[in-house]
Design goal:
Layout (H helix, E strand, L loop, with lengths): L1 E10 L2 E11 L4 E5 L6 H9 L4 E10 L2 E2 L5 H6 L2 E4 L6 E5 H8 L8 H6 L9 E2 L5 H15 L3 E5 L7 H15 L11 E5 L13 E6 L2 E6 L1 H11 L2 H4 L6
Parallel strand pairs: 3-10, 3-11, 6-9, 9-10
Antiparallel strand pairs: 1-2, 1-4, 4-5, 7-8, 11-12
The structure holds adenosine-5'-diphosphate (ADP) and magnesium ion (2 copies).
Keywords: ATP-binding, Nucleotide-binding
GO molecular function: ATP binding; ATP hydrolysis activity
InterPro entries: AAA+_ATPase (IPR003593), ABC_transporter-like_ATP-bd (IPR003439), FeS-cluster_ATPase_SufC (IPR010230), P-loop_NTPase (IPR027417)
Length: 244
């Protein structure tokens, strides 16, 4: 589904990612952990193809297609979707209008998704304008449900979400990824950044990686890695080039 080959990424003149290798199979969900400022968000932005994140060497392959030099909208058309850590406010664009624009199948009824995410009263409002933290995340998840990507990147989906919304978020992300025993057809793939690991209560996760100073330092069972970090700190990961 997604393959990164020795990916180096720079913002301006500064190299942030120093050779990332990653292979996510169809149906797999990977978890990305690591300290603040280590380059986790940069990795997602570079995979999605935003201009400021320059791939200086290496490759991004999506479903066998080299997308390293392709623009964001083409990657989206190939099935990539992203939820930002801090989603931007979009003045002058109403949520309802946006949902119609990004719906790839205009005959599909998106009303059930809108109801499911509790966003019926938000359709006439500008995207994220004055939304609370939880409302922003619900709106972003709803947009993903409508866009229906097959490779989903989530940047700290739990941040800024109150306890009441956490359950809805977790369930909705599991639905998006089709990553739960109750979904027969586990076709989608994901890359999820998390600090708390709460999202793992809702998802079947397959692999974990720890990013430190722009490099992967640790790979393995994400629950074991989280336990290691909680007990011994990120420094322990510096020593574990091996699989946890
Ligand atoms: P993380 O998500 O792991 O906290 P980031 O990817 O956000 O880390 O940041 C990695 C490094 O890149 C940080 O030093 C950060 O200051 C820098 N950085 C991120 N975005 C920008 C930007 N738009 N301009 C300049 N530096 C940036
Ligand atoms: Mg290299
Ligand atoms: Mg980040």
């Amino acid at each position: 589904m997604l393959e990164l080959q020795d990916l180096h990424v720079a913002i301006g003149d500064r190299e942030i990612l120093h050779g990332i290798n990653l292979h996510i199979e169809q149906g797999e969900t990977h978890v990305l952990m690591g300290p603040n400022g280590s380059g986790k968000s940069t990795l997602l932005m570079a995979i999605m193809g935003f201009d400021a994140y320059k791939v200086t060497s290496g490759k991004i392959i999506m479903n066998g297609v080299d997308v390293t030099d392709k623009p964001v909208h083409e990657r989206a058309r190939l099935g990539m979707g992203i939820m930002f850590q801090r989603p931007p406010t979009i003045s002058g664009l109403k949520l309802g209008k946006m949902l119609n624009v990004i719906n790839p199948d205009k005959d599909r009824d998106i009303q059930p998704a809108i109801t499911r995410m509790n966003m019926v009263d938000f359709l006439e409002r500008d995207i994220n304008q004055g939304f609370s933290g939880g409302e922003i995340k619900r709106s972003e998840i709803l947009q993903m449900m409508v866009q229906d990507p097959s490779f989903i990147m989530l940047d700290e989906p739990e941040s800024g979400v109150d306890l009441e919304n956490i359950h809805l978020m977790g369930e909705s992300i599991a639905f998006l990824l089709q990553k739960h025993q109750r979904f027969a057809n586990r076709k989608n793939s994901g890359l999820v950044i998390t600090h708390t690991g709460y999202i793992m209560d809702y998802l079947d996760v397959d692999k974990g990686h720890v990013m430190i100073n722009g490099e992967f330092k640790c790979h393995g069972n994400p629950r074991d890695i989280l336990k290691l970090i909680k007990e011994k700190g990120y420094n322990e990961c510096l020593r574990c080039d091996k699989i946890v």
